[in-house]
Specification:
The chain is mainly alpha-helical. The chain has one domain. 67% of the residues lie in helices and 0% in strands. The chain has four helices and no strands. The radius of gyration is 38 Å and the shape is flat.
Length: 118
């Protein structure tokens, strides 16, 4: 009887130990994932900090003002080059490139009568 109780207690002890080991393994995996995510977020934060520093710089502000608003410094001359706008015709779905280029469709080619032989 004492041996049966001792075996039962030993079994419960081993079961509790196995559960603890499995839980520790799971927590270790989760900890590694969290550390990897934190490292990724740190890298992303550093990248965003660098971008913020650049966006606050005089160099960026001046470039943006020149590009968007035509800003020029005293003594500089603004030169704008414009070209005529060419509208490209949109191809219809299923239309071949040569049909759009030559304004001919496959149906037009089939409908064209062939000259009679003399």
């Amino acid at each position: 009887m004492v041996l049966a109780i001792a075996l039962l207690l030993l079994g419960l002890f081993l079961y509790a130990m196995a559960q603890t080991a499995v839980q520790a393994h799971r927590l270790g995996q989760e900890e590694r994932q969290v550390f990897a995510e934190v490292e990724q977020l740190r890298r992303q934060r550093a990248e965003l900090q660098g971008l913020l520093t650049y966006l606050k710089s005089d160099e960026y502000v001046e470039g943006f003002a020149r590009q968007q608003f035509g800003y020029v410094k005293p003594g500089e001359t603004l030169v704008e080059v414009t070209a005529p706008v060419v509208q490209q015709e949109q191809r219809r779905p299923g239309e071949r490139w040569w049909e759009a280029a030559f304004d001919v469709s496959a149906a037009d080619l089939r409908a064209t009568p062939t000259p009679a032989k003399p």
